[in-house]
Amino acid sequence: MFDYEFKEINIEELQQDLLNKFNRYQPVKRSWVNVDGEWQLIENPFNYDWDIERKRRTVKELAEIKQSGGVIYGVFDNSDIIAFSSVGPDFSEDYMAGYIPIGFIHVSYEYRNKGIGKKLFAMMTEKARHFGAKKIYICTMPAEESYAFYKNIGCTDAVVIHKPSAEYDYSRQMEFVL
């Protein structure tokens, strides 16, 4: 089914240039916004992309996840990373007991809609079960397509909301029951 290599990434592979060729581009036409406790789909056209600094910051964040006990998966086409994801470590807050976070799940623009994200998600759910989690927690950008991906694989709006910083105020928090 796939001609790509799916594998767990070790800490030595998390080099500064790992994502240099990764294409995080996403054209967004409509986004979900929460208005007085109700989600509404609104016109909100913009292009979301990562510059080289954002890619390097992401590699650093992935290394921190790995060093804290989380797991990083990568998908490679030859030697180029075309998708990646992370799961864990557990939340430190008591109110998030039973949840384990997905820090990242991204597929390079030209490789989307091929089932790669679904396979990565399945790998992460298996690892989350191994960690003893009851639910996966996802903080997703509110783009219509992003929300549709998670909804189509069985995610729902999160029962418990984790707000680590104002940076996530625009996000939609979702969960997946294991």
| CATH-defined fold name | Aminopeptidase
Looking at CATH, the homologous superfamily is Gcn5-related N-acetyltransferase (GNAT)
How many helices in DSSP terms? 3
H/E topology pattern: EEEHEEEHEHEE
What is the mean predicted local confidence, pLDDT?
92
Task: Sum up the overall morphology in one term.
Answer: globular
Q: Compute the number of strand runs.
A: 9
What separation lies between the terminal Cα atoms?
25 Å
Task: Characterise this structure.
It contains three helices and nine strands, in the order E-E-E-H-E-E-E-H-E-H-E-E. It is 23% helix and 35% strand. It starts with a strand and ends with a strand. Strands 1-4-5-6-7-9-8 form a seven-stranded mixed beta sheet. A two-stranded antiparallel ribbon has the order 2-3. The longest helix is centred in the middle third of the chain and has 16 residues, at 52-67. The protein has one domain (5-177): 3-Layer(aba) Sandwich (Aminopeptidase), CATH 3.40.630. Helix 2 links the parallel strand 6 (99-107) and strand 7.
